[in-house]
Design brief:
mainly alpha; three-stranded antiparallel beta sheet
């Protein structure tokens, strides 16, 4: 990946480019693969290569993905990679105009729906993952009484733990410790509610 920093999405055009169902799937797959061709991605999303290429170019127009060094001898293949170590869409960037608020809400809903779809797929396939993965997987709910500052502290602490595990896992994989290693999604939501 070109940048080790997360990309801060602050404009409505980039948000709309990312908040397209197929583009978000392609971005997520590309992030996991680190680099891939449109043909490889098309096979994973069951879409035409030309359509996938079009959407990759749209993501590239907004700096979300970029061309990668070729990973094969076939010079006709165009390789893509994420331009950064992920994206971050913050509410404060999209609250100063009604159209920005609406776009941010629509994008957030899409992201949540795709995360739920990933988890439902896991639930459907859980029996095939084996006992170790089934016992290691988690879903939980905690109903806390916090202030906004305390929730922000909790978010920061959780992010630090996630980054530590990600760095350790990537270092171990780079050292050749790949047996049993899988992609793992961890979705966490922290939000206020009233009863």
């Amino acid at each position: 990946m070109a940048s080790k920093e997360q990309r801060q999405v602050t404009d409505i055009g980039t948000l709309k480019a990312l908040a397209h169902p197929l583009r978000m799937k392609l971005y997520r797959l590309l992030f996991v693969a680190e680099a891939a061709t449109a043909s490889q991605l098309a096979g994973q999303v069951n879409e035409a290569v030309s359509l996938v290429s079009y959407h990759l170019r749209k993501l590239a127009e907004h700096g979300l993905v970029e061309e990668a060094e070729p990973r094969s001898a076939d010079a006709r293949e165009r390789w893509w990679q994420p331009s950064s170590e992920g994206v971050n869409v913050r509410n404060e960037s999209f609250r100063d105009a009604p159209e920005k608020v609406a776009a941010h809400i629509a994008a957030s809903r899409l992201f949540q729906e795709q995360r739920s779809e990933m988890y439902r797929t896991y639930l459907d396939e859980r029996a095939h993952w084996g006992r170790d993965w089934s016992e290691a997987a988690c879903d939980s709910e905690a109903l806390l009484r916090l202030t906004a500052d305390e929730l922000a502290d909790l978010k920061r602490d959780m992010r630090a733990v996630l980054e530590r595990y990600d760095e350790q896992g990537r270092a171990r994989e780079a050292a050749g410790r790949i047996e049993g290693r899988e992609n793992v999604a961890l979705h966490v939501y922290g939000f206020p509610f009233r009863v």
